[in-house]
Amino acid sequence: MESPFSAAHTANMRILLAALCASALSAGTITVAGVGYGRADVVLVTPNGGQYTAYATEIRVLKDGQSVLAYCVDLFTSIGMNTYNSVTGRPDGYQSGERAAWLFENYAGLVRSNENAAALQLALWDVVHDNGDGFQSGLIQLGTSETILRAAAETLVLNSVGQGSLNAAILYNFEIGTDRRMQSLVTGLPPQGVETPEPATMVLIGLGLAASYGFQRWRRSQT
Question: What is the CB neighbour count within 10 angstroms for residue 94?
Fold first, then answer.
């Protein structure tokens, strides 16, 4: 029997997808084809002191027959090697999206090592989830063993203060058949012809994101 939490989560995702598609954003599909530089063993710390490891990598995406590079902007939602419904939005329609777009525009093309990619991914997460407060507080905290990575990521976060760009796109991704929200990505694809969602749409997006995050936290607490 499906729990009421699961049913509410699915309903919110359907509302979110409908709102996005109704707001003149560009819809289609993407295929997550692989990963590039990065690390699968970055040690992160939860706000209550627990530790876990996370992938912090480049993501290779096929969109409209084109292979593009992307990074995750939503640590707390998963994605896998698969094809997804995808809605392309402008960075100014996403929380701290313009700052994230600036990081992507200025550093994604300079990545030449696993540590470079992991540092950029961490900087993106910190900017989006914690407004760039560093890695010792908030939702994005690094383990004490990650001294070198912390220094590199903090440099990127500090360099992004006061910066912003529209030269990127946010890919809102959904599981085909269920409309379950998957990880959102930032990519260098210019969002041509894509409009910023109306305020009412952004309220629905916020409700959907909050519901998803709350659901994920509840599920983790049950395991």
Answer: 25
